[in-house]
Amino acid sequence: MSDERTSPEPEIEVRVVPDTTTDPSLETETNRGGSGRGLDVSRIVLYGVATLLLGGLLYGGLVYEADPDVGTLIGSARVQMRLGMNESALQMVDQALELYPEDAEVHLVAAEAYALSEDYQKARAELKHPSVSRAGGYRGYLIQGFLEDRQEHFGEAVNAYRKALEVIDDEDLQEQVMLGIAEVHFRQKAFRDALAECRKITSRWPDRPRAFGFRAECHRQLSELDAALAAVEQAVSLAPDDAGFAFLHGKIQYEMGNHEAAWASTERAAELDPRSWQARFELARMAAEQGDTERARSALLTAAELDRQAVERELESSRSDGTQTQSLIQILEGSERETYGAPKR
Length: 345
Hints:
Layout: H1 41-44, H2 50-53, H3 70-82, H4 86-99, H5 104-116, H6 120-127, H7 130-135, H8 139-150, H9 154-167, H10 171-187, H11 191-204, H12 210-221, H13 225-238, H14 243-255, H15 259-272, H16 277-289, H17 293-317, H18 323-340
């Protein structure tokens, strides 16, 4: 195979996968180990394994060349996958497969694209191509793990990720894959197994905050709030400017009954991420539960200015949670009447 047809090994980007139930614009760039997530606490500190597949080199743009090189094709396919345009990505992949049928990287990217399009049979077929076996490396294991995870074959997913770890030398990537294994356990509600994986990470890399944050969320799910607080405080000490850890700290403090500390941490999260409607919504919820209508109104309307649809969805999903939710709904409806007038009957 000539050099011009051999694509580079993609770099893995350290990011948290956006939660599709929240506004992707709320994702923030933070220091190593940062999270930058908001209301959905379980997504604040979890490293999404899918990011391992989407962290390749970007070449940018659509392909208009009559005979584009392999790097341009697969790079453009990755751009499309990042944007959620899987059909366009598959068109790029099909073109690459036709032009470069023996390029292992093409088959790996094809497997990624098919996996994200939920065509798992084709994805598995691409991973079985002889060129992939000859190339070796860890990426085939990562994609296999992703496939198994998406199909809820959790044990097989963990096994595939562990095989990847055996051939990965880079410590940053090792940490990411170990966090990915912890996430698989977490989504099965196997919180003890997730904790065990996180402890391996914090023992090996005690200066990295993500696993401490993940430990905090696992302890929180187990109602072990003292342990959760200790872990999240370690994360905050390592990454004091991370909005996600500040938010989680506030969440845990509130559940422990430390309302003033909870307010301070959540307010800090809002300051660190000015675009976060989630932090403002959480402040509104806290204030409503404490009967502070003015602070609840101010925080809620600020959240609604940032993303009204998301706030309305959150209120609707928690409509049966109690009187504080009803009071927030009334505040939001009242603001609509002030802005647009009473609805016609």
